[in-house]
């Protein structure tokens, strides 16, 4: 039991430290029955976390998820002590076996930095649009705009270029025909271009990095343009020109003119190959760890916060004389009398509250036969 509690505590810590998404479970009154970032004793309305401007559309989304089973959306969400951030919300309905009531599971991913990038681009477009739509030739605009206006526009452009050229992601933007309009310095370097300006007018066939993935990338970008719908934090793998498998977290955002018409697509690629390799090694390590547990003679099991079995080894299955397939989901309370039930509950509650392992804990359980 000591070993089981230590390992369970370790796994729980690894999980909590490596998930960035917010997770909610809501009932039909839109009350939070579970969230992975805050503990609470009473049910809290989801309204407490949603920006006032977004509450109406978010509730509409939740009703839709309850009705049709799935749904996605975006909203500003605020955590305790942190200002509002933009999140992509993905939801799915399910029936809770505990009370047989329909509920929804929400997974919310932070997309604030991409929203900010989209906002800055639109802001820049608005400033330049007044000039470019008024003058027949952009090269003459300095003749008609005040010195202060010229300085302001140049400063905005320089600031934007400075930011884009100094972030680690690969960034580029294309028109609706997928002809390159620009890119950042990292993307230019990836394609052996001396300067980002050299990419203007080129197509994917002129570049080296996408040759093995050309058709797929163009298909994804055309979908974003055609549907006028962004894709955030999509995980994809590509084969590099050197034959290596590289993993990227990708965002594809439709670009609009002042009238709201789609005029192109902005794509960002973050190389997460090292992270994926680490995740793969962790998964292999956990599989090895579980394989070891399955072959030890001592009984080992794990339960969720409700006391239902989520994992156990062969030795424990044999000990309670129940096949492994039948044991999953059964509650530990089915194996103990009232005295031991209270004893176990007290220890589990202390463990959960303190986060510290408890040693030399003993209890009695009832076998099937």
TrEMBL record:
GO terms for biological process: regulation of DNA-templated transcription. Residues 228-284 form the PAC domain. Gene3D superfamilies: PAS domain. Pfam families: PAS, PAS_4. Residues 285-355 form the PAS domain. This is PAC domain-containing protein. It comes from marine sediment metagenome.
């Amino acid at each position: 039991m000591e070993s089981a509690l230590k390992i369970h505590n370790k796994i729980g810590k690894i999980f909590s430290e490596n998930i960035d998404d917010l997770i909610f479970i809501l009932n039909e009154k839109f009350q939070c029955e579970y969230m992975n970032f805050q503990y609470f004793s009473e049910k809290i309305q989801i309204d407490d976390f949603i920006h006032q401007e977004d509450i109406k559309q978010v509730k509409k989304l939740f009703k839709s998820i309850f009705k049709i089973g799935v749904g996605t959306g975006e909203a500003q969400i605020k955590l305790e002590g942190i200002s509002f951030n933009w999140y992509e919300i993905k939801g799915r309905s399910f029936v809770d076996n505990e009370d047989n009531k329909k509920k929804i599971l929400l997974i919310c991913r932070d997309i604030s930095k991409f929203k900010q990038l989209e906002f800055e681009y639109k802001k820049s477009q608005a400033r330049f649009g007044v000039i470019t739509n008024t003058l027949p030739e952009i090269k003459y605009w300095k003749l008609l705009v005040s010195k202060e206006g010229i300085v302001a526009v140049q400063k905005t452009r320089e600031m934007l270029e400075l930011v884009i050229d100094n972030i680690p992601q690969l960034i580029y933007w294309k028109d609706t025909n997928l002809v390159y309009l620009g890119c950042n310095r990292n993307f230019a370097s990836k394609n052996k271009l001396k300067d980002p300006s050299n990419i203007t007018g080129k197509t994917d066939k002129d570049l080296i990095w996408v040759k093995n993935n050309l058709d797929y990338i163009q298909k994804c970008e055309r979908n974003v343009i055609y549907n006028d719908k962004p894709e955030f934090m999509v995980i994809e793998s590509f084969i590099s020109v050197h034959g290596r498998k590289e993993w990227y977290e990708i965002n594809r955002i439709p670009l609009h003119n002042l009238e709201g018409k789609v005029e192109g697509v902005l794509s960002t690629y973050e190389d997460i190959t090292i992270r994926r390799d680490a995740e793969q090694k962790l998964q292999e390590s956990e599989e090895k760890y579980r394989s070891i547990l399955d072959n030890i003679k001592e009984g080992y099991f794990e339960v969720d916060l409700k006391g239902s079995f989520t994992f156990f080894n062969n030795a424990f299955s044999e000990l309670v004389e129940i096949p492994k397939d039948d044991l999953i989901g059964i509650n530990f309370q089915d194996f103990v009398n009232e005295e031991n039930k209270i004893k176990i509950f007290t220890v589990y509650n202390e463990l959960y509250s303190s986060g510290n392992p408890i040693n030399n804990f003993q209890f009695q359980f009832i076998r099937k036969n």
